Structures are given as structure tokens and as C-alpha cells.
Amino acid sequence: MSARAKTRKRRGEGANLRLGLLLAAMVVVPLTALGLVGARLVTDQRALAQHEIERGFLERMKSLDQAVQTIMRGFERELARASAELPKSNDPSAIRDAMGRLPRSSMVLVLDETGKVVHPPLTGEMSQREVAFLERTRPIWEGGLLTTVALKGALEGTSIGPERGWMSFFHGGGQHFLWWRTDARRVIALEVSGIDLMTELVTQLPDTPLEADASPGGTGATGLARTAARDDPDQTERTVLADATGRTVYQWGNREVGANERPRAVLGLSAPLESWSLRHYASESALPGAIADSLSTALFGGLGGLALALSAGAFLIWRARTRESRLAAQRVSFVNQVSHELKTPLTNIRLYAELLEGAHEAADIEAGDPAARHLAVIMRESDRLSRLIKDVLTFARGEEQKLAVSLRPTVPDEVVQATLATHAPSLAQASIAVETTLAAKTPVMCDPDALAQIVSNLISNVEKYARQGQWLGLATSQHGDRTVIRVSDRGPGIPRAQRDKVFEPFWRASDKLSDGVTGTGIGLDIARRLARLHDGELRVVDGDGPGAVFELTITTAPIEIAPAGARSGDAAHTHDKDRA
Amino acid sequence: MKTPLALLALLLPALAPTLGSAAHAQQVRVETDLDHRLLRANEKQTVHLRVALTGFELASERARAPLNVAIVIDKSGSMQGDKISQAKDAARAALSQLRADDIVSIVAYDDTVEVLVPATKVSDREVIERGINRLQAGGMTALFAGVVKGAGEVRKFLSKDRVNRVILLSDGAANVGPASAGELSQLGKNLRREGVSVTTVGLGLGYNEDLMVGLAQASGGQHVFVESEKQLAGIFREGFGNLGTIVAKEVVVRVKLAEGFRPVRVLARGGSSEATDNADIVGQTVTVQMPALYARQMDDIVIEVEARALAPQTLQVATVDVSYHNIATQNADKVSMALSAEVTTDIGRWNESEIPAVRVAVIERLANQESRRAVELRDRGQVEEAQKVLEGNARRLKDGASRYGSKALDDLSSQNELDATNVKGEQWNKQRKVIQRRNSQSPYSLEKNNF
């Protein structure tokens, strides 16, 4: 395969490749764009969900705090009832009896309005528990907070008002609580130990929920399912209640909290547990899982569907295109074969016409024999037909990417003159005057057959479309390695906008123009292709008048020095061949 | 009351020994004695007052009170393997001892608490079995929360007419939430006030016996030491069986001493009575709360009393009120009696008036105290001193045993000898558990592995 053929083949493959790339881009680009937008959306949504969930956690913590407050209020009610049971007198045994009837083991401290402890009886008989109680609460009643409460009423000169509240103190490493209220001229304070409180809190707060029961019967299976659930950290949560010292009092939820794991939400409890806190642990990815996952599922599902649709579309386009080009190729090959088949009978017609002409020439030419005239018509028309067939074959070769030129030293003017000569009869018949300015006498490397075909096509066009101008201008010139051939007419011309389109195959300038004109519509396409094979160009340029001016430029390689005879012989041969 | 009786027991009609045995069988028997029937005249003296309570026999198994039990199982990492599977078997063994109308719940804890079986009737065996099968070990030890949640399940069906218990099985210390013996004793006290007792079952040699004993004792429950998990199922079967023999609960003994007598202290078992909150002395009145009473089992309290110099006479020493909830009749029973004594100048008669049972009880309590002191010494590293105390204990117990012909003291003496031997060396960890358990409950309860 020659280099040129390879180039052509590559060009064909290139076209397919381009189409493929285009179609791929058609699929990939929107998908990528949507994917990016979607990913961004998912990220945003996830962040939003994360935020929402964290707020949710905090809300839950707050409701837990409310629950704790409810527990504290329960204590308050219980203690208020207990304090209401106390006798009005400060008789120790009456007070003890009253306290003994309470469900919870409470110690009671009673102060009078001077801040003095009246129960337990400091100077009287006391149980060891009462002694211990007085000892641990000493900082509160001996000039402490409770003393202040008792004295306040006295200082204000009224009986102590209906006040109540909590105070807490630390003893023996644990936090204790006192709930106090004023009662006429006394302050009554009841103790709630830290353990009492914790017991109540643990009782009321939730326990760790059991994982869904996989199999009611099998120990092993249940065990495994359970392990799996535990091992999946996304599924788990843990809430921790910590006391004033930060110690875990109670926790629930089946998340195993790592040593350095940070809680997702922390909330300090309300008074009187203001130094206590709730901490919530959950895995980060788990949080908005449901939301973001469903979103990304929808998104990627949508993208997948779209990808499928786009791919299907691209495939259909691809198939339509390839079928179209296959059909076109079939058509071209059909025309090609038909043209080849036409060539042989045409050659025979021409041969026998020439033989007839030769026979008639001597004898009957002067007699103005109509047979000789008819013979000339046959000759002319078979010439035209052979040009037509040649065009078709050239076009077919071009379509099949098989168009090639064989370069040899040629004098452009000789080719132009020979071509003009073959058109002379038809030009004359159409009363078209020919004006030539030929200045390309230096031989150049080109394909004379191709050059002749180009020029012949341009002349034919003038015959067809610019007949009314009745004029044909043919000028050649040479500048270095460039050879320029101009074919001008005085016809209607070609509008600037259509100057490129006239080179497209099967295109005609306008219906009006082509009315009554025959033609294949491939002439200019072939001409331009052939020009380009000469590293040249064929285009419509501005002329002096309204008519069209076609300018052929070919760039030729420097001519090799060859014997003049061989050159002229070649040229003559070309000439003969053209004529033949 | 002028009758010169050494002991005058004023029994309520229902308790009169002459009444029919059926009626008698449905009441707790109360006996009150001093260590001598007589008091020495004209001298200040220390006497011991004992109130002994004996549970009556249940008419039949069907007559027993329905149980309301939470089984709380430690499923922390240390329970992995054989222990947890034996614990499951123990739970099943417990079930086998329960009646259809009993209520049971199963709670398991590690870092957190899971209620495997919420309080449910035993007749619903499938639910319970499924809960038991869920047990799997791993994690930390939130003992406090486990007990509280177990108590929460018991509370759902809390009734005076039921035996309300939390049975805690653990092989380790608590390390999540409140974890000191003091805090858990406090919890025990609170639960006791509500009418829930906790029986703690310590498994293996790794658990904290002070915490487990303290919790049990404060709540009025028992502590059981199970050295090997293989014994677990058997002990659960026995213990749950015994739960059904509880005939009285919420037993409160109130002793009001007469003029001339002053209560000094209650000779309590285990930790100090103040720590367990079971005894209170205010003025002349001693109030002691006792754990439940089991059928045919005796339990007693001993109060040390100081009597001032008295002229010869017969006088009332104390009035004793015993109140309890009778499980068989579902009644709140109350027994009141008065204790009188004659003051004599005749030392010979005084010597003869000794009551061995009271002396035995006193010796047992004093040995118990000494044993506790020995443990404290050993805990401080004073091994030799601890050994001496225990050896002295064994000797005194031996003397007492031979003097009063008491098998109980003789057994206790041998046990103290063993304690003294094991106070040194590797056996101490185990021996300490044995001692702490023994010191916390009555010999009867020990022998029966009461739950």
C-alpha cells in the first residue's frame, strides 16, 4: 500500500474515530456534569443531614434532661409530702416516727429561725445514723447555706417565707443532695443521697435495646447475629450520664465507645444537677445515612438510567451513520460498476465512428454529406459521454478514498489548449467566444489527465450555466512553483455566501439557474479534489464583472531535469490521449 | 407479773404453746432470753439479751408464697466461655424450681444493661428460654445499673404477698457507675425499704466479696460463694428451692428496755449494723430489721445491755415487739412479750441460771467480730496478727463448744482453725470469701445455701 493510500485509509478511520469520540462525549459530558452536581448535592445534603441529626441528638439530650427534671420533681413531691408529715413540734421521737414511715430512707434536718439545729437533737439522744448525718451536713447548718436560709426570714422580721430548693454537698467522695423548705418558723431539710438519686435515674432511663431476634430457637445463630450487629459500628449509639466528677453513672445503647472517641452531643443537665452531663456517641457516617444514602441511590440510579438512554441514543446514531455510509458506498460502487460497463461500448462506438470518419474523409467531405455531419455529432457526444463517465469514475474513486494522481512533467498551457480544443465544437455551437491569455509554458510536475479534467469541468460549467454571457476567459500564469489557471465567464455569477457550497457534490446554485440545465452535480467536487491532490486549491474569486471566476492554483514540486524529447513526447502523448 | 418467775414470757393468745399445732405452725416462734435467768444484785453488770425467731413449717409446697424474682447476670468479658454457659444452665435450673404463677425476669449487664426477659409469668417458658439463649459475654461491669434494672423488673409486680428478690450472679467487681461497697450497700438499704432483697452469688475467685456481701446484707438478702461454675446450676436449684420456704418477711424486732437498763450495742453479724442500717438504737429502744425467715430455720439477734446496780427484786427488763409479714396467711402479724428477771444476791443460783443457747449465740457473735477484725488486720498486711486473732478465736470457740456441748461452736472452731491456716499463702483469696460470707449470715442460712 502506498503512503497516500495509507493516509486515505487513516482519514477514513479518522472519520469513524471522530464520530465515535463525538458520541462518547455526548454520553460522558452530561453524565460527568450531572454526576458532579449530584455529588455536590449529596455532600451538601449529607452535611445538612449531619447538622440536622446533631441537632436531633441535642434535642434528645434535652428531652432526657427533661426526664431527669421530672425525676427530680418526683423527688420534690415525695419530699414535700414527707416534710408535710412532720409534726409541728420538734419532739425527736415524733419526728423519727414520721420519718420511719417514709418509703425512702431520708434523714431530716430541722433548723429554727435563729439558724439553730433543733433536729436531730444536738444535745439529746441520737442514733449513730443521726450523728453521722449531722457530721456530714455540718458545713451546711453551721454557718452554711441552710443557716443563711433560716436567718433570712429572721432578719426580715417576718416568718420565713414559703421557699424551697435544692442544695448539694460532697461527702465521702459522693455527692449528696438536700431538699429544703421553710415551714412557719423552721427550715426543714431532707437528704437525698447520691445513690438514691442514681437509683431513681437508672430505673427511669432506658436500657440497652435488644437487637432484633434473628432466630428464637438457635443459640448460635442469635449469638452470631448479635455479634454482627455489634461489629457494625454504624448501627450503634451510646448515651452516657456522668456525674459531677465526670464519672459514668449510667449508660445505655450498644455502641462500644473508643478510648478517644468524641461525643456527638454533650449537654449539661439543669439544676440541681448542673454539674452533671449527658454525652451522646454515634458514628459519623451512620448519622445521615438514611437520608444521604437514599439521595445518592436515587441520584446514581438516575444517572445510570440517563447513561443507558444516552448510550442507546449514541448507538442508534452510530448505527444509522454507518448504515448510511455503507449504503452510500454501495451506491457509489454500483455507479462505478455501471460506468465501467458503459466504458467498453462507448470505446467501441468511438472507435467505429473514427473508422467511419476516416473512410468518409477522403471521398465525401466536400459534398457536405449529411452523414459526415451526423458522424461529427456522434463523435462529439461520445466524447461528452466519456468525460461524464470519467467524472463519475473519478468521483467514485474519491468517495472510496481511492483517488490518486500520477505526477509527471507537464506543460500546463498545452493541457489547457488541448482541453479547449475538445470543447471548441460545443463552445462554438453555444456561440461562446473564447479569450485566452496563456502564460504557463514551463513544465511542472502534475497529472495532465487530472488537470485536463479540472479545466474541462470548468469549461463545461460555463457552457451550462453562463451560456448567456457568451464569453469564456481562460488565463494561465506561473509564479515560482505556483501555477494559476483562471476560468471566467460573464454569466450570473455566484453569490459570495454560496461560493463554498458550489463545491459540495450534488449541489446546484439555484433552481432558477439550473432550469433546463442537465448535469451530475459532481463536477466541481471532483475538480477541487483533484486540485487538492496537487497541493493546490480551487475556489471562486472576485472577478471584474458580475460573472464567476474560478481560480485553480497548484503548487508543484520543482521539475526534474529531463531530456526535452521525453518531455515533449510525454506532453504529446497526453495530448493524444486526451484527444483519443 | 409478781410471780417469781425467772423468765416470764407473755405470749399473745395465738402464740400460746397450748394451742393447736396448726395455728402454731402458722406463726413465727419468738423466744426472748437473757444469758442468765437471774441478775446479780447490787452490782453494775453487762448482760446479753437474745431474741430468737424460728420460722414455722409450711403446710405444703403449694402453700408457699409466689415468687417475684429478677435474675441479674453479669455478662462482662470475664464471664466468657464456660461461665456464661453454666450461668445459662443455672438460670434454667432456677426455672425448674419455679411455679407457673411465679414471676421471673432476666437482666444481663456488661457496660450497659439489657433486659433479656421483662418480668413475666413463669408459665411463659418460651419467652424466658429465648431470653436465656441471648446471653453472650463481653464488656465491662455495670453492676449497679444491672441491679437497679433488675429491681425495676421486680418492682413491676411488687407485692407484699410475694417474695420479691433480685438474684445477682457476678464473677467480678463493678467498674461502670457506682462501684464501691458503700454505695452498693446504700442501694441495698434502699431496695430493702421498698421490700426488695438482693441475693448475690459470687462466682469464682475474682469477685469483690466485700461489695457483694455488703449489697446482700444491706438489702436483707444472702450471699452465696460458688467457687466453680460447675456447681452453679446445683446451687441455683437449691437456692431457688429455698426461696419458696420463706415464711416471714419484713421482720422488725423492737426491744424497749426498762428503767435501769441501757442498750450498748447490737452484736450484729457481718459489717457493722450501722453500715447495713439494720439496727438502730435510740434511747432505750433498739430496733433491728431482720432478713426473711425461712421455714424451720432459726435466726436471732443479740443485744449487749448494761444493767445498773439493782436491789433484789423481780422486775421487767424489756418489752419485745416482733412484727412481720406472714407469707402463709398474708397477714401482718405482731408478737409482743415482756421479759422479766429476778435480781438475786445468791451467786450460786445465778451461776446455775445460765442459759446455754444465749451464751452460744454471744460466743458466736463475738467470734464473728474477732473474725472481722482478723480480716481487717490481714487486709492491712498484718498477717501474723490476723493469724493470732483467728487462732484465739478457734480456741475460745472450742472452749465454748465443750462447755455448752454446742456442735455449732465446734464446727465454727474448726472453720476458724482453717481460716488461721489459710491466712498465709495462696489460699487466702478464697478463704477470705468464705469468711466474709460466713460472717454475714446465720449458720442455718449458710448451711442451706439460702437465696
Structure commentary:
The complex is a heterodimer of chains A (580) and B (451). With 580 residues, chain A is of the alpha+beta class. Chain A is built from 13 helices and 16 strands. Helices cover 54% and strands 16% of the residues of chain A. Chain A has a 5-stranded antiparallel beta sheet with strand order 2-1-5-4-3, with helices on both faces. Chain A has a 5-stranded mixed beta sheet with strand order 11-13-14-16-15. A 4-stranded antiparallel beta sheet of chain A has the order 7-6-9-8, covered by helices on one side. Chain A is rod-shaped, with a radius of gyration of 55 Å. Residues 214-231 and 563-580 of chain A have low confidence and may be disordered. Chain B has 451 residues and is α/β, with parallel strands linked by helices. Chain B is 38% helix and 29% strand. Chain B has helices at residues 21-25, 82-96, 125-133, 143-156, 181-194, 209-219, 232-243, 273-276, 347-352, 356-379, 383-404, 407-422, 428-440, 443-448, and strands at 29-34, 38-40, 45-54, 67-74, 103-109, 113-121, 163-170, 197-203, 223-226, 246-257, 261-266, 279-282, 285-290, 293-294, 298-307, 314-326, 331-344. In chain B, strands 2, 10, 12, 13, 14, 16 and 17 form a 7-stranded mixed beta sheet that branches. In chain B, a hairpin with a 3-residue loop joins β5 and β6 (113-121). The A-B interface holds A 93, 96, 103-105, 125-129, 132, 172-174, 193-196, 198-199, 202-203, 207-210, 213, 216-219, 222-223, 226-227, 238, 247-254, 256 and B 111-116, 126, 130, 133-134, 136, 139, 142, 144-145, 148-149, 151-152, 155, 176-178, 180, 182-183, 186-187, 189-190, 193-194, 274, 277, 280-283.
